[in-house]
Amino acid sequence: MALHVDQASVVFPSADRRPPTEALRAIDLTIENDDFVVALGASGCGKSTLLNLIAGFLQPTTGQILLDGHPVQGPGADRSVVFQKHALMPWLNVVDNVAFGLKLQGIPEAARYKVADRFIDLLGLKDFRTAPVYQLSGGMQQRVGIARALTCDPKVLLMDEPLGALDALTRERAQELILTIWNTTHKAVFFITHSVEEALFMGTKLIVMSPRPGRITHRFDLPFSRRFLAGESARHVKASAEFIGLREQVLEIIFADEEAAA
Ligand SMILES: Nc1ncnc2c1ncn2[C@@H]1O[C@H](COP(=O)(O)OP(=O)(O)OP(=O)(O)O)[C@@H](O)[C@H]1O
């Protein structure tokens, strides 16, 4: 599997007489199996616009998005999205929420529950299988959202600040869980966050974007998630000199962008 963003630009026309917004300019990005690509950058640098292009919610003004060589022309089951607000069906229980996409595809109940149960187990939700989702905590609801995205067996999992609404401790647990699942399923992931620490810990590749126009200004290959998955504790990884040094370097890039915008 290979997803290529090829010289993609997005210009939003303005509703009044102000100039149009150049949300993205000439973006080149490749996402392959086993890649965990994280996008980081000052507000308005085009992270969500880029995710929307990959999801097929939006078409580029120029350039193209190719999935295994075929142009992406709209949303598809090969790309699942997990949003910060989990958009679950509050009247359904956990298993029916997780199996919802399969139901839409017309898959019979027994077959869809079999797939859903695999991801319910993987995300530690077994004891809540038949609980209504409104009874769950925010962190658990987000796990239901991730399980639902995975049941469709997407080639690429797109995550737009999926952990942004969680408290600090739950967020760290969720980071570790997502990495463990990524390591089990070998999905390609495109992940947006505002947290530099989260970006460095989770990604195998980091893109740092700048606004006006939105573009990729820096790219880093990251070792930290693999160190965690090889057995090093998350706290140990995040406290290492290499991690802290890179964190300061990336923070400096982002602060410089935010100051330039102020
Ligand atoms: N539908 C739209 N119409 C007009 N302008 C838009 C639209 N969507 C986004 N924009 C503009 O495009 C630019 C990039 O927005 P985008 O939401 O992709 O940035 P972002 O990096 O995800 O921001 P944030 O971190 O604040 O969520 C911004 O200037 C935004 O105002």
From TrEMBL:
This protein's UniProt keywords: ATP-binding, Cell inner membrane, Cell membrane, Membrane, Nucleotide-binding, Plasmid, Translocase, Transport
UniProt keyword Cell inner membrane present: yes
SMART domains attached to this UniProt entry: AAA (SM00382)
Alphabetized SUPFAM superfamilies for the sequence: P-loop containing nucleoside triphosphate hydrolases (SSF52540)
Molecular function GO terms recorded: ATP binding; ATP hydrolysis activity
InterPro entries from the UniProt entry: AAA+_ATPase, ABC_transporter-like_ATP-bd, ABC_transporter-like_CS, ABC_transporter_ATP-bind, P-loop_NTPase
Superkingdom: Bacteria
Matches recorded under PROSITE patterns: ABC_TRANSPORTER_1, ABC_TRANSPORTER_2
Domain called ABC transporter: residue spans: 3-236
CDD domains for the chain: ABC_NrtD_SsuB_transporters
The keyword Cell inner membrane appears for this protein: yes
PANTHER family: TAURINE IMPORT ATP-BINDING PROTEIN TAUB (PTHR42788:SF18), TAURINE IMPORT ATP-BINDING PROTEIN-RELATED (PTHR42788)
Family: Belongs to the ABC transporter superfamily.
Protein name: Nitrate ABC transporter ATP-binding protein
Species whose genome carries this gene: Paragemmobacter aquarius
Lineage: Bacteria, Pseudomonadati, Pseudomonadota, Alphaproteobacteria, Rhodobacterales
